[in-house]
Every structure is written in C-alpha cells, then in structure tokens.
Amino acid sequence: MKLSDLTNHAGEWLRGNGPMSEIVISSRIRLARNVNGFPFLTRCTRHQRQALEHKVRDTILAADLSPEVLYVDLDNAPEMDRQLLVERHLISKPHAGAEGARGVAVAENETLSVMVNEEDHLRIQCLRSGLQLEEAWEQINKVDDRLESALDWSFHPRFGYLTACPTNVGTGIRVSVMLHLPALKLTGEIEKLFRAAKDMRLAVRGLYGEGTEATGDFYQISNQTTLGKPEDEIISDFKHAIVPKIIEWEQHARRTLRDDRTVQLDDKVGRAVGLLRSARLIASEETLLLLSHLRMGVHLGRVKDIDLRTINELFLLTQPAHLQRIQGRKLEGDVRRAVRADYIRQKLGVS
Amino acid sequence: MKCDNCNKNATVHLTEIKGGKKIEKHLCEQCAAQNEGLPVKSHMPINELLTNFVMAHSGLQKETGTGCDQCGITWAEFRQSGLLGCANDYQVFEKDLTPLLQRAHEGMTHHVGKVPTRRGGSGVPMKRQVDLTRLRKELAKAVEAEDYERAAKLRDQIRQAENG
Ligand SMILES: [Zn+2]
Ligand SMILES: [Zn+2]
C-alpha cells in the first residue's frame, strides 16, 4: 500500500455510515505507551531516537496487525504528505512538524494508526465512523496486546502505564468523539456544551485536536482523567451519559430550527447551497462553514439532491493537501481557491 | 496575548468568516462566553495548565534537589517543559508529583484498569499484583458501604487471585 492510494476517497471513519452519524462524525480511542529501556523522547539522544524508531517499526511490521500496513518514515517524507496525514487524522499536527526519527503505521482501512516517537514512544489510535467506542476499544485493546508481546511497556503498579506527560499516566487512554453541532451553535446554546464539559472534566477541541479551532461546527470532546478510572468506565460514561445528552440537545435545537425558525433555517441552508454551487474562489475555512450548514440542511430534509457521504467527503477532499494531491500539483492563493471552488461545483452536480 | 475587549489574558482564539473575509479575534474566557455564545478554540492546553499549576506552587518545591540519576532531569526542568525525562522519574519525584496528579485526575493517585500481562524479559507477573491491590480497595469500599453481597463476592475473588 502506498500513501497515494489514500488520496481519492475518504477514510473508513468518514463514510458517514456509523451509528448516530448525522451528529457523531467519529469515535476515537488513543493509547499512550512507552518502551522500557529508553528514556522518554525529550531525553533521547539522536542515536537512541533512531534505535527506538527502528525497533518499534520492525515490531509493528512483524506483528501482523493487518494484511496491509503502510509505514511512513516522517523524517524523510515531503511536507505535503505529512499535511495529508494530518488532514486524514492519522497523525497529529505536532508529529507532522517535529524533527528527528519518527513515523506512522496505518492499517485496517485507516481505522488503525500508530504514531512512533510522538510525545510518547507509541501513540496507538483507532478511529471509527459514528458512535462506535466499544468497537474501537475492542480493536485497540487487541493491538496493544499484540505489541506488548514483543515490546516491554513502561509500567508501574501504582501509576500504571508511564507517560512523558503526567496528565496521560495510568491508562494512557484518550477517548474522543467528534461531534457536528451546527444547530447548537446557530441557536446560541453551544455554551451548554462548554459548561457541561467543564463539570464533567472533559476537554473540548476543534477539528484537528489540541489547539485547533472548532471550524465547521465540529467539536471534539475527550476525557482528561486517565488515572484511577478504568478504560471501560470512561467508555461507558461517554456512550451512555455524555454523548446521548449532547445528541439530545443538538436534535432538539435542530427540531426548533426546523419547526419554529423555518425561514431562518432555509435561509442559512439556501445560502450555503447557493454559494457552494456558484462560488469561483473559495477558502477552506469558508468551505467548512458552508458545508456544515449544508450538512444540517440535508439531515433535516431541506436539501434533497445531495447525500451526506458526498458532503463528508468534501470536508476532507477540499483541505489544502488533499486538493493539491488530487490535482497533482502545488497550488497557492487564488489558484488554489479557484480549484477548490471548481471541485466543489463538480461534486455538487454543477458543470 | 491580551483580550481584544479587556485587559485579561486571551485564551480563546476565534476565526470567523464574514462576507468571505477572515476575521480573527482573541478573547479571554469571560468575553468569549458573551461573544454570541461561540467560544471556539479549546480551553488552555493541558500542558499549559500543568505548568501554570506547578509554577503557582513553586514555593512548595525545592529548587535545587538532585535530579534523576538515569536521565538527568531535575524538578525545575520538568516544571519548564511539563514533560518527564524517563520512567524512573515517577519514582524519583513521587512526592512532588502526587499533588499534581491529584489535581489532574480528579483526586486519584493510583492506577485502575488494564495491566500488561507480562513485562518482556523481566517476567514479573504484573497482573496479579495490581488486581489484588484493586480488589482489596474495592472490598474496603464495599464494606464501608455495607454492600455485603458485593463484599462476599470480592472476598472470593481475592482468595482466588491469591491462590492462582
Ligand atoms: Zn476579555
Ligand atoms: Zn529520569
């Protein structure tokens, strides 16, 4: 498998066919692990860092995690490839921009990725479409077992899995769901989400993780407590308490828009469709915002001739690195905005 | 960075699209909350929070202790970066780390959850050790809550784990 094989379609998690996928875009579980006998990365020498990367890469490739595993040596990968992996949520922004020996393994239709030499020696991640946290846990737990049979994890009976940052110590788990909440934002009720998150000690982030904005009305909710709470309890809280509550709020807000503020809703959605179908130059942030309104309009039956999957794919394929990869050339400024506008019009059935 | 509206520190950074133009705003949390209810960027990143916490309590920490003899990191260096240097540091700085862990993890200080079934070459059976600690803790809780049915079950599990 090659990196270029990824470009022309959306990953499994963006297919839009998972449970509750009109609101829950994706479910993600990440485990932080470190290998005994090596310092954490900030204290590794160049040589240790390389040795570690080799050891982990060889282990992953020998572990038979899936019939096809793509391993990308990020230290020697072009910037655009790294950006592409960020846009697909397969690596973090800091991992893309870092220096020194590091990589990522991608497998199982992009539902599995393992970052090597990120903040911790390994960051294992499972990404699923819709609300599928238990399935993601089952998958990642097996991968962890498989890797553990060849790598000796740093573990302490009191502190659990040891991590470079003490905020991840214990289970080393981060459970997150990516939610699409345009109606809560339009009705001004999104504050509810921030208050609830604060009360439940959850972090709210944007589309591309830590330090990014909630562009296109996407909000990523994740746990912060990793010590003293078992994995299944964290997952169960998300599945049975946290996510259903937020879904209920968003659904209520969507119904309110549809039934009591129909004109305002149709105006927003109509403008989104109109702009997307007629713009000749469009920036990626504006695209996300308009696609967000369009997506809500499709879900509420205000737009009939566009499906959710097309919109989900557009969210990804209009991002800068994807657009350039599809066109096969470097694009900048107005040229890039023009190509994006053309691509959108073509996908939305305007010639 | 200062808040656009007042003099507090800006922790929320918004990008809005108006008429095809990108407008950036930098606000403190209070002002962001009033901004059409649309605070967008994440709250303070965890590392920042940690560092601030450690800074605020720096009076309690000894500035010049010896560091880790394996990776060489000192407590002051950890405070700077928010990242530890090696697995040994959890042992070396156990006392200083404990209040920090409690703050970051809802008051918890002990791991509960998955345990590696083996430790590579070392061959120490980790699982049993941790399971026992956890079961004993749960038993104490069950007794305290006068949930005797659960306590009996836990006692059986402990006996089984001790023998297995
Ligand atoms: Zn302010
Ligand atoms: Zn150390």
State the total count of DSSP E strands of chain A: 10
Oligomer: heterodimer
- Strand line-up in the sheet with most strands of chain B: 1-2
SSE string of chain B: EEHHHHHHH
Unreliable sequence segments of chain B? 36-47, 55-63, 120-124
Q: What is the makeup of the main sheet of chain A?
A: 8 strands, antiparallel
Number of helices of chain A: 12
Which small molecules are bound? zinc ion
Total strands of chain B: the figure is: 2
Classified by CATH, the class of the largest domain in chain A is Alpha Beta
Overview of this structure, please?
The complex is a heterodimer of chains A (351) and B (164). With 351 residues, chain A is α+β, with helices and mostly antiparallel strands. Chain A has helices spanning 46-62, 79-87, 93-97, 133-148, 182-186, 190-199, 231-260, 262-278, 284-299, 308-317, 320-327, 333-347; strands spanning 24-33, 69-73, 103-107, 112-116, 122-129, 155-156, 160-161, 173-180, 202-205, 218-223. Chain A starts with 23 loop residues before the first strand and ends with a helix. In chain A, 52% of the residues are buried. The relative contact order of chain B is 0.07. Chain B has 7 helices and 2 strands, in the order ββααααααα. The termini of chain B are far apart. Chain B is flat. Mean pLDDT of chain B is 72; it is low at 36-47, 55-63 and 120-124. The longest helix of chain B has 19 residues, at 126-144. Residues 68, 70-71, 73, 85-86, 88-89 of chain B line the site of one zinc ion.
